[in-house]
């Protein structure tokens, strides 16, 4: 992280390739650096030499009288490799490459980006970019952008892959303190940037704009640590198939599947935001409120309909509608009309019209915030009149007074009307409250605040369990046999790998003919199940390759012959190695356990509804391996299948602990075996007395 210090705190900066044009639409970096008030030494570099804006211009980097802490390169892309070599030869340790046309462009650009990395290898020099506007440090009046922007200082940081999030920080995060546009992330990326910014005391909230990431597992380690200290918000773009393609061409990044990013963020404590408005209001929320004792929210409103909207939003976000104490009810009832029942939401408009709106608002807030059963309050109030002209509706003094009196309980607002901006500015001036654009945004923000304070911040990290007694040699032998035979998919012997990994499997044997099938069935015990054995056939039922509940030798013999004939006709190119025979085990819940190797995060576990309906309902959850016990339970609870496992409509509850152990053992297996690219255990049958794998398929690479 020390290598990032000169990017944010340079005592001197070389601006290489600076334009000699100045004024509007010149996009001159030197102009922007000077306009920002940077107080360090500035060295413009341009082959023409001379002077520019009162500063001497140096023809080459070697002419600069000292070794600059930071070099900012904005030359044509073809000149960049030579300039980087010149900078490293001079001993410059921090380089920002503004220029585009590298991994974000054609094959030659990708090759030049590789050359840049070779140039700085073993030199101690770091690169931000290419394809970036660089860094912002408004605490020290530094920015390396070639475009002017509203420099609004705030206790936030931004790591992004598009300069718009630095230039538009006033809109997206309500301002900024420190920021870096990593661009193509050829060298400096999310991981070390997050680690560095996480240690800066001025930064209270860290924001990420992410198109893709390559070192996903290392990033998660850092994010787990940083998110326990301060909130980390991420706007992940490139979620759709079209968006993922655009992300790749824009920044040369690897875009993994979107649900994997969501799972990874959840595991490491990152709060995912869906749009820039949510990002803005979550920043305001975390910068304003430092406490929220619980989930119980009260609503004070001037409209019954608006109050119902707020209650709906509260429930939708996982918060609770607070129940007022008897003391609170009596105190409010004393000022409410006799015909009006005291409830949450509390409609104060009739009482306000009779006794004075500001007086009733203060009484109601003081009473409700004092209620030990209330953890936060949302106030719904109008902004129909200019607060300058009609102070009777200027609620800002009252609101800030109550917020100051009860700092441990968030006091939030939803106001509406023609003078909303003016009234919101008055109320937010003391940084005690946040005015939200809707009850939905208010409740979602409070829910995120609660989740961070109680579920993410200061949580105790748990290590994944390590199981002993794994038959590693047996697993290696099966995989080696598959490699030797040129197989990419393992079907029947996949169950043997699971068994060697400690996952219970249903006894099974392969029959080569009808006679063998009868002998095996009698040794296993009736009834039995028969499945076609072929490395080319994964979905056996699709080609008539499954028979269940066979009760005697005659049924087994007949089923064997019919199955082989049917499958041969429907899948003529498949190699049939016989028929797999297993005991028939009806009952229990059929679930899917699986794994897929993600390009960004490595092995990702999958859990969900199993059997023939897996792809139809897609009731699945994900987690990046390895996982601990709590993460395994979270995966199970996230799905609708969890209700079935608990015992639905009189059915006995399944052995969830056995299922958790299967997930944990699968996690250990795929983490230790990088050649396993994909795996499906479908179904894993979970009953009251345990879990057992019935069928499995493994893809190796």
Automatic annotation (TrEMBL):
Protein name, UniProt field? CoA-binding domain protein
> In its keyword annotation, does this UniProt entry include Plastid?
no
- Pfam families according to UniProt: ATP-grasp_5, CoA_binding_2, Succ_CoA_lig
Alphabetical UniProt keywords: ATP-binding, Ligase, Nucleotide-binding
A single GO molecular function term of this UniProt record: ligase activity
Leader peptide range in chain numbering = none
Keyword Cell division applies: no
All copies of the ATP-grasp domain together span 495-531
């Amino acid at each position: 992280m020390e290598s990032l210090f000169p990017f944010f705190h340079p005592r001197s900066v070389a601006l290489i390739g600076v334009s000699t044009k100045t004024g509007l639409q010149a996009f001159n970096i030197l102009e922007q650096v000077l306009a920002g008030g940077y107080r360090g030494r500035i060295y413009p570099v341009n082959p023409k030499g001379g002077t520019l804006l009162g500063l001497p211009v140096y023809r080459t980097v070697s002419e600069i009288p000292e070794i600059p802490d930071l070099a900012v390169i904005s030359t044509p892309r073809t000149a960049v490799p030579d300039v980087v070599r010149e900078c490293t030869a001079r001993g410059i340790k921090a380089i920002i490459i503004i220029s585009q046309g590298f991994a974000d462009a054609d094959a030659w650009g990708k090759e030049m980006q590789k050359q840049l990395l070779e140039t700085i290898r073993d030199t101690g020099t770091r690169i931000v970019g290419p394809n970036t506007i660089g860094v912002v440090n408004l605490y020290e009046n530094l920015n390396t952008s070639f475009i002017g922007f509203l420099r609004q200082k705030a206790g936030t940081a931004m790591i992004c892959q598009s300069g718009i999030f630095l230039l538009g920080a006033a809109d997206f995060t309500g301002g900024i303190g420190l920021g870096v546009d990593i661009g193509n992330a050829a060298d400096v990326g999310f991981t070390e940037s997050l680690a560095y910014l996480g240690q800066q005391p001025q930064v209270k909230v860290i924001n990420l704009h992410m198109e893709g990431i390559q070192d996903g597992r290392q990033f998660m380690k850092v994010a787990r640590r940083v998110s326990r200290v301060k909130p980390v918000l991420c706007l992940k773009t490139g979620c759709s198939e079209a968006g993922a393609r655009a992300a790749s061409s824009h920044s040369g990044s690897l875009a993994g599947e979107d649900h994997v990013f969501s799972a990874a963020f959840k595991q490491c404590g990152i709060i995912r935001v869906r749009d820039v408005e949510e990002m803005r209001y979550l920043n305001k929320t975390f910068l304003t409120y430092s406490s929220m004792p619980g989930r119980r929210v009260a609503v004070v409103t001037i409209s019954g309909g608006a109050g119902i909207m707020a209650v709906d939003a509260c429930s939708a976000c996982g918060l609770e509608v607070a129940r007022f104490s008897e003391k609170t009810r009596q105190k409010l009832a004393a000022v409410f009309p006799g015909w009006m029942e005291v409830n949450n939401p509390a409609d104060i408009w009739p009482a306000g019209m009779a006794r004075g709106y500001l007086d009733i608002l203060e009484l109601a807030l003081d009473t409700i915030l004092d209620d030990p059963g209330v953890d936060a309050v949302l106030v719904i109030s109008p902004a129909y009149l200019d607060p300058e002209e009609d102070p009777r509706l200027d609620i800002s003094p009252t609101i800030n007074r109550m917020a100051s009196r009860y700092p441990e309980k968030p006091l939030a607002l939803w106001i509406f009307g023609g003078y909303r901006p003016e009234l919101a500015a008055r109320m937010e001036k003391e940084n005690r409250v946040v005015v939200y654009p809707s009850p939905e945004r208010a409740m979602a923000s409070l829910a995120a605040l609660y989740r961070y304070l109680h579920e993410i911040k200061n949580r105790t990290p748990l290590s994944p369990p390590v199981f002993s007694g794994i038959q590693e040699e047996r697993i290696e032998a099966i995989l080696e046999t598959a490699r030797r035979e040129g197989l990419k998919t393992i079907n029947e012997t996949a169950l043997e790998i699971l068994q060697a990994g400690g996952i219970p499997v249903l006894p099974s044997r392969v029959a080569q003919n009808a006679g063998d099938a009868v002998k095996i069935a009698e040794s296993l015990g009736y009834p039995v199940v028969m499945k076609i054995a072929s490395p080319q056939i994964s979905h056996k039922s699709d080609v008539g390759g499954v028979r269940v509940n066979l009760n005697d030798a005659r049924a087994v013999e007949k089923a064997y012959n019919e199955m082989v004939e049917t499958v041969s006709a429907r899948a003529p190119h498949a190699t049939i190695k016989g028929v797999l025979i297993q005991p028939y085990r009806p009952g229990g819940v059929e679930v899917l356990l699986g794994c897929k190797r993600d390009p960004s995060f490595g092995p990702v576990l999958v859990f969900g509804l199993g059997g023939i309906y897996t792809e139809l309902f897609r009731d699945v959850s994900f987690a990046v391996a390895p996982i601990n016990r709590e993460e395994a339970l979270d995966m199970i609870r996230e799905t609708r299948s969890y209700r079935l496992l608990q015992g639905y409509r009189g059915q006995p509850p399944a052995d969830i602990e056995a299922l958790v152990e299967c997930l944990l053992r699968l996690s250990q297996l795929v983490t230790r075996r990088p050649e396993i690219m994909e795996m499906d255990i479908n179904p894993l049958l979970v009953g009251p007395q345990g879990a057992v794998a019935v069928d499995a398929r493994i893809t190796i690479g």
